[in-house]
Design a protein that fits this description.
It contains 13 helices and 7 strands. The protein is α+β, with helices and mostly antiparallel strands and 327 residues long.
Length: 327
């Protein structure tokens, strides 16, 4: 039985149970159906342990932490379902999210997955994290059989702060060079994360990325995230994480990198007309086609959304970045 929260197609797209789920998000809602763990506290501990192991297994997320708020729902057959909101300390990118979010248990001395029935939801295009988090946690708390601490959303936190501070004198924050430097330091991308992204986009971190992704649909954003981060369903990346034996492209000519896939692979000559019609003279400029700022650009630069959309259309036309159906 599908979780009741997922019945409304107007609010959330229900992803198929089988196959991969590409995840690029900080907040998610997960339902585990037909669990073999009857105790909610035991499930809570098993979930935290499993998620922490998955985060630690990926070089890009080994320093990421997670907060969990969930509830248990009993069904007529006496089997529990668990609904869980998860907040990660930063956005994570997983090609096989169901595998990474699996809850592991010990059966007869061996570790095995508790349930394969995992439904994942993330904020839809145009929906704020605060609204998404508030809605899913209200749903979780409705039954009352909860575990973990409710994750504060910015809207509620901001309201409490305003209520507490409305009678206090307002003190302006100093804008000294030190304060500005500290602010810029907080905005920096960690050196251990995003080296590939910073190579193709010298404007990172910047507000232009929000502009780009806000203009895209969910499936389009998933494609662009793969291309801009380098964590992608191409053999160069899959080989680096041990998901395939070779980094060679199926065309047999070179390593299957993003550049090779977009501009050189002979398997996609027909589809590449989409890029050529957009801007033939920039055909090997990776930054241009992925909405990034090249080192040669001046301060007036802004992403070319026509080129970004052409790149996404090309990638979707090849179907190379689509899920394979293996979890």
């Amino acid at each position: 039985m599908a979780p009741r929260y997922g019945r409304s197609k107007k609010r959330y797209r229900h992803e198929p149970q089988c196959g991969e789920f590409v995840l690029y998000a900080k907040f998610i809602f997960v339902t585990y159906t037909r669990s073999r763990i009857h105790g909610k506290d035991e499930f809570h501990l098993s979930l935290l342990d499993s998620v922490e192991r998955s985060l630690a297994s990926d070089w890009a997320t080994h320093n990421v932490s997670a907060k969990v708020f969930g509830s248990r729902e009993w069904h007529e057959n006496g089997v529990p379902h668990y609904h869980v909101a998860i907040e990660f300390s930063q956005k994570i990118y997983w090609l096989m999210a169901r595998k990474m979010l699996s809850v592991w248990i010990i059966v007869d001395g061996r570790r095995e997955v508790d349930t394969q029935s995992i439904f994942i939801k993330k904020p839809k295009a145009g929906e704020t994290n605060e609204k998404f988090l508030r809605n899913v946690q209200d749903y979780i708390a409705k039954e009352g059989d909860v575990f973990g601490q409710r994750i504060p959303d910015k809207e509620r936190t901001g309201r409490r702060k305003r209520d507490c501070c409305k009678n206090e004198p307002q003190v302006s924050r100093p804008t000294t060079g030190l304060a500005l430097a500290e602010e810029r330091e907080r905005e920096k991308i960690p050196e251990s994360v995003g080296k590939y992204s910073k190579r193709i986009d010298k404007a990172l971190p910047g507000k232009h990325t929000r502009t780009i992704y806000d203009a895209l649909k969910g499936e389009e954003a998933d494609v662009l995230v793969q291309l801009r981060t380098g964590m992608i369903r191409l053999n160069s990346y899959l080989r680096s994480i041990g998901a395939t034996d070779s980094n060679l492209c199926d065309c047999g000519q070179a390593t299957e990198t993003v550049e090779h896939f977009l501009f050189r692979c002979k398997n996609w000559t027909a589809q590449r007309e989409i890029l050529l019609k957009c801007e033939r003279t920039k055909i090997v400029n990776l930054s241009f086609f992925l909405g990034g700022k090249a080192a040669s650009e001046n301060d007036r630069w802004k992403p070319n959304m026509q080129a970004v959309r052409a790149t996404i259309r090309f990638a979707m036309a090849t179907k190379r970045l689509e899920p394979t159906g293996v979890t």
